[in-house]
Design goal:
Radius of gyration: 14 Å
Largest sheet: 3 strands, antiparallel
Helix content: under 10%
Shape: elongated
Number of helices: 1
CATH architecture: 2-Layer Sandwich
Structural class: mainly beta
Number of domains: 1
Length: 96
């Protein structure tokens, strides 16, 4: 689920989305024997600190593992015209 460097600047608007600078993958049970997708939304403030983490697509019982991992991720704040800004960042994870 975790990837870094996957958000680039929008040259026309001067916006750079919040980017993950450190973190780890969720620790799912071995051989879950099921398929599914989890989408997590992270609210990052203008200092790059996490303000809120929530599942916007749930896949029980694996959502809890993803939320635990996401709360430990570290971000670089989004910028608009080179000024730090708070933002929301969605990440998708697949259980296979």
């Amino acid at each position: 689920m975790l990837s870094t460097g996957d958000s680039g600047p929008d040259e026309k608007s001067g916006c750079i989305p919040a980017g993950i600078v450190a973190g780890s993958h969720p620790q799912y049970p071995i051989n879950p024997a099921t398929l599914g997708v989890i989408v997590v939304q992270v609210r990052v403030n203008d200092l790059g600190k996490i303000e809120q983490v929530k599942a916007i697509r749930d896949f029980c019982p694996f959502t809890q593992f993803t939320l635990i991992a996401a709360r430990k991720w570290q971000f670089q704040a989004a910028t608009i015209d080179a000024k730090p800004s708070s933002s929301n960042r969605a990440k998708t994870g697949m259980i296979i």
